[in-house]
């Protein structure tokens, strides 16, 4: 039995507000959105972070990313969007199952600054 929360969401054992799902990946709303419409995209197979992804898994994640970004854009009408991905605690990773963040951006005071832009 896994103790990984994202594996449990992927398996339907924990509730998730699902935006997209296919055989290999699932996208769901972040439980603590940093901005309105914050979505996470994960592989259904447990992979800790980018170091563990196969090329095929990485390809598929980015193959579906544009349609997920467009769905968020259509639903929430943000002014922009950050795609962010953290690897390792030192980089801010808190859940150790690979996830790509889609963070819609509304303006400079919307509550989110990428770590490389925190002046
Ligand atoms: P990290 O810091 O690892 O890049 O991001 C982890 C993200 O997972 C955070 O944005 C956090 O709000 C989100 N998160 C943590 N636990 C849950 C959960 O149980 N459900 C959902 N939907 N998101 C979660
Ligand atoms: Zn997992």
Walkthrough of the structure:
One of its GO terms (biological process) is methylation. It is an enzyme of class 2 (transferase). There is one protein chain. The chain has 119 residues and is an alpha+beta fold. The protein is 24% helix and 21% strand. It has helices spanning 5-10, 55-76; strands spanning 18-21, 25-29, 39-43, 80-84, 100-105. The protein has a 5-stranded antiparallel β-sheet, covered by helices on one side. The model has no long low-confidence stretch (mean pLDDT 95). Zinc ion binds at residues 4, 6-7, 46, 97.
Characteristics of this structure?
binds zinc ion, five-stranded antiparallel β-sheet, alpha+beta, binds guanosine-5'-monophosphate, 2 helices, HIT family, subunit A, single chain, globular, about 25% helix, about 120 residues
CATH topology category name: HIT family, subunit A
CATH superfamily: HIT-like
What structural class is derived from the secondary structure elements?
alpha+beta
Low confidence ranges:
none
> What is the average of the pLDDT values?
95
Strand content: 15-25%
Helix-strand topology string: HEEEHEE
Question: Largest sheet, described in full?
Answer: 5 strands, antiparallel
Q: How far apart are the first and last residues' alpha carbons, in Å?
A: 43 Å
Ligands (ions, cofactors included): guanosine-5'-monophosphate, zinc ion
Which of globular, elongated, flat, extended, rod-shaped describes the shape?
A: globular
Using only C-alpha atoms, the radius of gyration works out to: 14 Å
Domain count: the total is 1
Domain HIT: 5-113
GO molecular function: methyltransferase activity
Keywords: Methyltransferase, Transferase
Protein name: HIT family protein
